[in-house]
Amino acid sequence: MTDAPPTLEMSIEEFSERAQAIVDQVRKVIVGQTDLIRQALICVIAGRHALLEGVPGLGKTMLIRTLAQAMNLKFARIQFTPDLMPADIVGTDILEEREDGRREFRFQAGPVFANLVLADEINRATPKTQSALLEAMQEKRVTVANQTYELEAPFFVLATQNPLEMEGTYPLPEAQLDRFMFKVDVTFPNANELVEIFNRTTGSYAAEPEPVVDAEQIIAMGELALQVPIASHVSEYVARLVVSTHPEYPDAPDMVKQYVRYGSSPRGGQALILGSKVNALLEGRYNVAFDDIRQIAAAVFRHRLLLNFEAQAEGITADQIIEDMLEKVGQEG
Amino acid sequence: MQRVIKQGQTQSLLLDSHTVLSEYLQRWNTRLRVARTLIWVPRGLLVGLLIALIITFISRMRPWLLPEEILRNGLIAIAATGVLSLVLVWLWPRETHFSAQDFDRRFGLKERMSTALELGSGQLFAPKVFVTHQIEDARIAAKKVNLAHLLPLRVRWLEVAVLVLSLIVFVGSLLFENPYTDQVLAQQALDREIDERIEELEGSREEVLENADLSEAQQQELSEPIDEAIENLERDEISEAEAVAALSEAEQELREMATDGMSSDERQALENAGSALQNSEPSSELGEAMENRDQEQAAEEAEELADNLDNLSEEERQELADQLEEAADALESTDPELAESLRDAAEALREGNTQQAQEALEEAAEQMREQGQQNQSQADAAEELADDVAESRREMIESTQDDASGSEEQQQPGQQQPGGQQPQQGEGQESQGTEQQSGQNQQGTGQTQQQNGESGESSEGQQPSGENTEGQQPGQPAEGQQGGQQPGEGQGDSDSQQGSQGQASQSQQQTGASQGQASASGAGDTGNPSGSEEQPGGAGEQPGPGEINNNPGDEDMRDFESVYSPQRIGDSGGEDSEMSLSGEVSEDEGDPINEVFNDEFSGESVVPYDRVFQQYQGEVQKALDSDYIPIGLRDYIHAYFTSLEPQD
Lengths: 333, 648
Prior knowledge:
Structural class of chain A: alpha/beta
Helix content of chain B: 55-70%
Shape of chain B: elongated
CATH superfamily of the largest domain in chain A: P-loop containing nucleotide triphosphate hydrolases
Strand content of chain A: 15-25%
Oligomer: heterodimer
């Protein structure tokens, strides 16, 4: 090597430093939940949406708010309730009287016009309201009264839902679930973490996260992630994983054939590669490895596998099927 | 942080890094092949050793290979599998990308190498700046790989121990005596001998085909028995008896052809024509000559008849014409030209044209003369060919006897024969039992020679009626056998042929008993064909003592020919457990007669039954081990020969 390697617009070291800075800020508030933080961060850097599922009180909302603070993003929280209307999300035209006495409609932007939207307990709203988020999540724009409004970049929806209180809820339709890059299970903290949580929340200490990055830098980090190369045999592995989630695929694992009604869409593969690229950068690598794929596979496929009645009856979870699939599907074609 | 990178610099960096990565891969591949060599070459050698052990095992289960062949084949198998494993390890293709993926996994490089190679080769698209960083990252990771730790050169000692153990077993198995060695040696000797015989037969056939005196049809006719014999000899796993039988059969067919050079159809046609002509007084002598197949004589008689036509009455001419017509009909299928001449003569006689009839008869005489000469040529060629075949057969028998005696001597070095007569008795025992067909086939040779009219001396000692003993002297087979066949003398050709046929069938027999029967009938002796109590049923040929026997003080001591064990087994031994041999036993070397035989056999050399039986037993065992005898009959045969064991 006679010449020094050329530099990137953002070096991998800078990427890692910034990501670590965000994590550090979040850790000021959130105790434990390493995977949750990392996967939420991957979604944010990748510019995709995440669905956080966990029982109340585990810090889901707190995490998202902290992320927004650390990244200095415009944050909006929407508490989904059965009577929430689409206009409450996207906004509406209101009639306004000018000084000259003339009246005209003015668009009153809803909470979706933010960088980071927290859709709290998203499954409590009616499907009509839930679907109001569809266009925003996919197209990153909203249309009200035939008028289309672009959402400000970056735009992320981090939704939460409670898996226990299912009465009076409206499970998200598959089409909407597919728009979430990850579905992250928020686990209950262990005893040590609980002690730390108690200490932090029952005293006078009140941690205040500081903004360490801004929206532009988040976008730059996302663009850098997109450049991470992925070797052809790794891409093929992702493809094999995606098709293996379909029970009709001849080489699908037995568990998939037995318990899965419908497998992942191509969006699952896209999410897997994109998430892996971010994960590779977070680990200080310039390329995607099989390990990256395996690390995020569960979060990617968990909500994309539609289990059949037999699986529900036998208590088989999507995570079990994914674990089996990762074991059965070989890295070598 | 940002820096403008010139296009050329980036390209140079890419090439350098790619080269470095390729070098790393090459180095790792070499290391991997060395590591695999340490694993797979012992395994390859082990496979070769297992093959060698299998070969050894099979060779101990059935006659197959000699120890030196086992060793050679085993070493070849070991070397071949060892080299094969080495070649596979070092020449097994490992594509660069495959190697990169493999080493990514082996060394935990997180797909850095494979990605870098794809980026470097342009298979994967990424911004050049990123490519450069990725390749550099891969190079750094490759540099950190500790080959000694991640790809150690280890020998699997357990496998090496198994290898050594197998080698010890293999060598050990070679050191222990293989019970089938002698059998294999004999079979190989037989195979060689058969090959030689085939070569000789092919040479004889070539001579026949190149013989200008013979017509194409005659060449073809003479070649047929040879071809048949060659075909039989070329069969797989042919036994010695079958080989000799094949040669005997060919010889017999050739001897038949050698009698008059005619085929059986021709012979029959000539006889029929002769019979027809004998019905007429003027042509009776012509008919007799034709019936005797003496074509030269017939030609002369035909000419004489032609000369006498003018002296015949009209009635005699008409009668002669009818007989000539009838003879012509008989010869129509085998000799149409002669038939036409005779028919012309008959027609001319009927028309009263004696001149034309004379011409036709003279023409017929000429044709008969020519035909006779041709037949004589064929007969001579057949005779020569038969002699060649007989010689081949004799050589084969002698050679296999030598091989057998050689192997026997090798097997029993220094073994003392009873009576302290090791040299002669040992030979006698060999020749009795080695190949019982041998003596018989030699006898057959003598018989066929007798058919050819060769006169033999008959001054040999005679056996009493019903006593058939056998004895032949090498070098004088014709004399000895003709002499020995005194009772058969005076019999017609057909008898002799019968004897010859008997010989041929004997050779195909496996047991000495059936050989003895056939021999007796072939020689025309009065020997008991059943081979039962009175005397051995073997062919009796005993040369006179003054001519053939070895007498003390004689300058030219002759070897005794092989002794055929007569078909007499099955009785209780004792007196009957004896057989006569031609010649006398030298006093210097002891007298076995005094040991086990009574005075009735004084003056003859004899071999005790128990010695003969050893050889029988060997032959029976060989036959039982072969595939010739159906499994269902083996117990029966075994029980039969067990019942024949000599009593102490």
